[in-house]
Write a structure and sequence with these properties.
It is built from seven helices and ten strands. The chain is of the alpha+beta class and 242 residues long.
Length: 242
């Protein structure tokens, strides 16, 4: 009887360890789909309400001439290209206080200051990330077209937004507001291998360190009938001499 009890305890302990390992795997998968703060709230049985953020910085980028490249490639080659590229981008994000909001085709969207507020640091985090991504793309190799150079258009804007979890099946963490629209326009009106930032982003950036920026001479950029935005080219961060 004693041996049976010991064997049973060993089996229970083994099953408990297996359950713990599987639970950790499922948690990690959830953290890749939704922000950790959202997942933790849902696990506690709390309803995730829309949340207002007074100031965040949102980044957009896309691949120049992606449609042309896609039409000259097989579907598998396009998937491999995006997977290779976004794996590099995802690893770059880990170095900064930033959150990948979504990828839609070749469009890559990142935010800082949301879902976790970080004071005024969000503009600096996004701009440093943008500069790093621009350097990474210069050495990126397309598997099926190794002699071609991939090029990005990048843009960022700073302002308020609202966040929320949308959908019950495959829920998504989404950002809403004019800030998101303007950030997208900063990218779409940018130039290949250039980072265009709004005046609001450039102003906030001055509190985050020293950066080399240049007023875009052919601005302002027209976002819609009511909104025009003065913009700057972001060239580099000026690091202190050691």
């Amino acid at each position: 009887m004693e041996n049976y009890t010991l064997d049973l305890e060993a089996v229970v302990a083994e099953k408990a360890e297996l359950f713990k390992a599987e639970k950790e795997k499922s948690d990690q998968l959830l953290y890749q789909i939704l922000p950790r703060v959202v997942v933790d709230a849902l696990k506690r049985g709390e309803q995730v309400q829309p949340e207002n953020f007074d100031c965040v910085t949102v980044y957009y980028s896309d691949i120049v001439a992606f449609t042309t490249l896609s039409s000259a490639s097989t579907p598998n080659q396009v998937v491999d290209l995006l997977n290779d590229l976004y794996t590099i981008f995802d690893n770059c994000i880990l170095k900064y206080d930033a959150y990948k909001v979504e990828t839609v085709g070749d469009c890559y969207v990142v935010a800082s200051g949301v879902p976790v507020r970080n004071g005024n640091r969000h503009a600096g985090e996004i701009c440093r990330l943008s500069l790093l991504l621009l350097e990474e793309i210069k050495v990126f190799k397309i598997r099926h077209r190794p002699n071609e150079q991939l090029r990005l258009r990048l843009g960022a804007h700073t302002g308020p937004c609202v966040s929320g979890v949308v959908g019950l099946v495959m829920p998504r963490y989404c950002l809403f507001g004019e800030t998101i629209t303007i950030a997208g326009k900063m990218e779409s009106s940018s130039l290949p291998m250039r980072i265009q930032i709004s005046e609001a982003c450039e102003r906030m950036l001055k509190t985050c360190g020293r950066f080399d920026t240049e007023l875009r001479p052919d601005g302002p950029i027209v976002v819609n009938d009511k909104v025009q935005v003065t913009t700057y080219w972001l060239h580099r961060e000026i690091l202190p001499l050691s």
